[in-house]
Amino acid sequence: MAETTFIIKSSPHLRHPDSVPKIMLSVIISLLPAVAASVYFFRWRAVVLYLACLAGAILTEAVFLAARKKPLSTLLDGSAVITGLLLAMTLPPSLRLDQAVIGAVVAIALGKQVFGGLGHNIFNPALVGRAFLQTAFPVAMTTWIPPVTKIINTATYATPLGNLKFQNAVAQHTLTPLKDLFWGNTGGCLGETSALALLIGALYLVARKTIDWKIPAGIILSLSVFTGIFWLARPDKYASPLFHLLSGGLIIGAFFMATDMVTSPITPRGTIIYALGIGFLVGLIRLFGGYPEGVMYSILLMNTVVPLLNRSTRPRLLGERRAKK
Amino acid sequence: MSLSSRMVIVLTAVGIISGGLLSTVGILTRARIEANRLREIEEAIITVVPGAKTNTKIYEEKDFTVYTTRNDQGQIQGFAIYTAGTGFQDKIVLMFGTDAEINKIFRLTILDQKETPGLGAKITDKEAFLKYWENKDCSHPLMLKKPPVAQEELGASEVNAITGATISSEAVLATVNASLAKLRSLIQAGTIQIEENNGQ
Amino acid sequence: MASKPLSQEFTKGLWGENPIFRQLLGMCPTLAVTNAVINGIAMSLATSFVLIFSSLVVASIKKLIPSQVRIASYIVVIASFVTMADRFLAAFFPPISKNLGPYIPLIVVNCIILGRQEAFSSKNSVGRSLIDAFGMSLGFTLALLVLSSIREILGAGTWLGHQVLGSWFEPWIIMILPPGAFLTLGILLGIIILIDQKLQRSK
Fold this sequence. Notes:
The structure holds three protein chains of three kinds. Chain A folds into two domains: 21-140, no CATH class; 163-312, no CATH class. Chain A has helices at 20-42, 44-67, 79-89, 97-109, 125-136, 160-166, 169-172, 178-183, 195-207, 214-233, 241-246, 250-257, 268-288, 295-312. In chain A, 57% of the residues lie in helices and 0% in strands. Chain B is an alpha+beta fold. In chain B, 34% of the residues lie in helices and 26% in strands. Chain B contains two helices and eight strands, in the order αββββββββα. In chain B, strand 4 and strand 5 form a beta hairpin. In chain C, 66% of the residues lie in helices and 2% in strands. In chain C, helix 4 packs across helix 6. The longest helix of chain C is centred in the last third of the chain and has 31 residues, at 126-156. Chain C is globular. The chains are: A mainly alpha, B alpha+beta, C mainly alpha. At the B-C interface, helix 1 of B face helix 4 of C.
């Protein structure tokens, strides 16, 4: 058939200047300060882990695109790069490289491509990869090393949250100082140690309106309220809300993972419920759960209810009436 | 024959035949199943109290059973305590042996658990966990050492935790300590009496 | 009823109507006990025993049972064989009985068994029903064997308790936990549909 000269298109007719590659590029830029910080704290371990995760993610994406006969150009939209980067940032620095690659393959294959690729996935792909690794290699995923900058004569090292949960740190007065949490001079996953570096990138994203500020704000609010109540009641037993905000994966999770456009709600009310839910679950797991850290599971759990939230909080159309029962 | 009476007759017949078959199978296997259960407990008692020749059940309640054991000369060696506590996933069923004064734990064995394989499930592993429980002083509550240290550096009533499986290690510890306290209070209250010459 | 050749009654259970990969029946034992090959084999044997004998009995007495009470009668027959299997394992193979725990009694509600009685044995001759039951049992056994082999090799580095992967291999513990069952089954289902589509197209 000859091409018609008329352009017949369904809506939308107005398009935002942002495109997928542009958004992805700004997310990558925003992650760079934290990447740099992790390389500073963990040196070559960080570099090789990033490379392993990126290679695993990009290759898997390419294999799936080829198998599904899609143009390989979508590889350049950057979403696989982000998944690889984010996954590496949630891994312990001492993880073996083959295990990191397995995580990256699972993240792309089972987290994204089996659902039909970018835009169709239910869960945040990087977190799917991490959840798989956490369950597959529980020992390796909970073995931590101190940062190079901290001169300690031990091979292993508890994370601030592990210290809080298992060593009764509040009562023993051995809680990691907030200063260390803020700068990142402590043990933990590659990209989550330095709150400062993460916040710089996060501010850039919020300023560019790439991410919805309501999501991190809601998470921070509900986690602060939840942990604040317990802290005010028993300051000798529970850590302060500020400690909870700066430690573990809360910042990277709230700003970079929960805000994933594909897996967060599209309605304003849904977004707020989603954010408050994540913060509440993080607090619940950290204070009463079996794990010291709960950001990953909280986000994954709230991801599962996103379709439900989208449907039940759909704004009413103008003039639409609620169906009578 | 009307339909309803046919239904009743068929169902009754099927029920009677199957009931008859099942009771036969039940009778044929009952003795063996009971023997299996007893043998399992017998083996566990020999594991936790080395050299136990005979044992007598002296106290039983839900998830807490006490046996006294005697060596081949008929002398009382101590207690074997069968108990259960809440682990990370599900109940941990275990047995441990103590001397008659409840000052020393001989050994500990895990009979049933559903902890995470490769992590909490290491509580069944001799090298990783159980060997630290051998011949421990239990006159005071036992304590967990974490991170783990070499066996020589452990205190008389300290046992090593499993790295990365603090919850499972603590569950076993809490279960053992609670059972020890319970056994002592039962002896004090006179519910459990050990009579040196009146075994079996 | 239009009857297929006997060989097809047997082979349909292996591929075309495989109870697990095609009919997606009996998911409870499939997902729960395939964490080790030995458990998979024990579960297959117990299920096959129940299926074959139930089919035999149901096909022989089908004319006597009024259709209004057929399901109740089938369930009594099935439950009797399940209880026998359960007692037998507890008496002679206590470790296996302990590993499989509640899943042996749960064979009663395994849809493969009631499904075959309702869909096949109650309408076909004893011989045909037995062939169908053998085919379905073998299909079930093969499926469990494949699933449990993948899970045990990746999750523990062993096959039937023997070390098959070297010490370099760090077991993927997730594979012997429940998520591993779902992942393995899902991926296998995908592969089988893919193969089937290729076969259909080449015809």
